[in-house]
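Exam review. A common question shows you a sequence with its structure tokens and asks you to describe the fold in words. Practice with the pair below. Do the first one on your own.
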Amino acid sequence: MARFEKINRFRWVTFVLVGLLSATTSVLAEEEPADTQPAETQPDQDDAPESDPESAPDKSVLLDPSHESWSRQAPDVYQVKFRTTKGDVVIEVTREWAPNGADRFYNLADNGFYDGCKFFRVVEGFMAQFGVNGDPEVSAVWRNASIKDDPNTQSNTRGRITFAMRGPDTRTTQLFISFGDNSFLDPQGFSPFGEIVEGMDVIDQLYADYGEGTPRGRGPDQGRIQQEGNAYLDAEFPELDHIITARGGVMKTEREPLICSICR
């Protein structure tokens, strides 16, 4: 009888241990896909811990470039924080470098325009380009919402951020960040308005294997990005990194701490 009880106890302990091990394995199996799948396939999971209904972009404003919120003057110096799929990046903008560009960037970031935007053209040693809204309906109304050029007062060196353009007075929403010395762009009218002050190592890690866009390379077609948005990029270029959220704040001076007056 005693031997039978010992056997039963051994079986009971074994059953408990097996049950605990199975439960632990189940938990790991549920969490593992979140670590092994590309971040681009699960933006909702990435955003969930910090979701705030009040911070979501107002699409009615995004669809109306004439709305008053797009014409506000930016502070003299301000910062914008990008949460990206590779980490956080902080951009500091000095308005006197390029006032029109600084104002446009301030309002685009504050209104959530860059949320979800892909880094669709990442060319090693050159630059990382982004700024086409993931919603084709939104990108369509901004495609010709251009601002006037700014005089070039700064050089396109490593870490500087600048608006892309098709020619004089054609800057809209697309931007690029220089990986190296791109000062050859200075005489062409590309006017930097800010620079990376935190997270340039994050920019260096952006997925770049697609390279230059079509037809010069195997990367995305900008025309199709405009017409089809992130649906096209997710389907055919799933490894691209993107901005999760872009929000900003005001600095009283260049040396004083950030005072977040427009963070949402």
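Now try the second one, then compare your answer with the model answer below.
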Amino acid sequence: MKKYGVSVVPAVVFLLAFLGLAQAAQVVDRIVAVVNGEIITFQDLQQRVRMVTGQTPDPGAAGEAMPQILESMIDDIILRQEAQRLKIEVSDSEVENEIRQFKARRRLSEDEFERSLRLQGLTQEQFKEQSRQDIVKHKMLGYMVRRKVVVTQEEVDAYVEKNRAELATERTVDMQIIVSADADRAEALFDELNKGGISFDEAVERYSVGPKVNNGVMTDVRWREMDEPWRDALRDLNAGEMSKPFMIQDKWVILKLLDRRDGAKQEQAAVEDEVREAIMRPKLEERFKEYMSGLRAKAIIQNKL
């Protein structure tokens, strides 16, 4: 398997509870990694943990999530340093234009866009920063990778044929969400839910680090609002069934399908645009992972966590 509320409690308050008063002052300023001479402090890591989990996590969840989140921070620094070396810059207007295009491609209103962000556990500012990083990725891929990623008409036709039923209509779903910061914890919770040892409502309340409004229930979510991992998780479920844990934004998600409805038909042109984007995204991501692996091999990294 692959790895994926907001609190305003200051980092120091969390550290005092997590580590004890005697250790807090020492740990706040501790260096946890050095990347080509650039440092990451424990406080930096704590801030990212809160951003990723969406709230101040309990000490156990924080400790389990930290190594993975630190690796992501190291990648961010390597990417930024390489972009600076190549003199690749991204303006605010480019970011705003990318977001406008994102909403236009998916035909999302502002309210629907906000709902899409909540599905991914992101704020608008976090999405802007993610969009900026995506633009940098694409620019670096265009600069450094000779072969462009291509989506052929044959691939589009095959994808449409395989997913014709769900692409042809405006599908909406109601679902309930549990989010965990750790893969093992998510798997254990999934097993406990299957055995009936705990209800989905109880699991959301006690263990989820994701949205808890309405017990984690989201209604009238349009199929095209969701990225492919969400669709994959829900595609073969019947109402009342749960998905296996899957990764979104460095968190592990379990979904319970409450209802599925198919409405009006979509226009063919809109379907093909959506399909091309769905096929292109994993291709670009795979190429970028290969590129990042090469950059990491050349970087001087000290992980002190």
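Model answer, second protein: The chain is about 60% helix and 15% strand. Residues 83 and 136 are 7 Å apart (CA to CA). Full marks require stating both points clearly.
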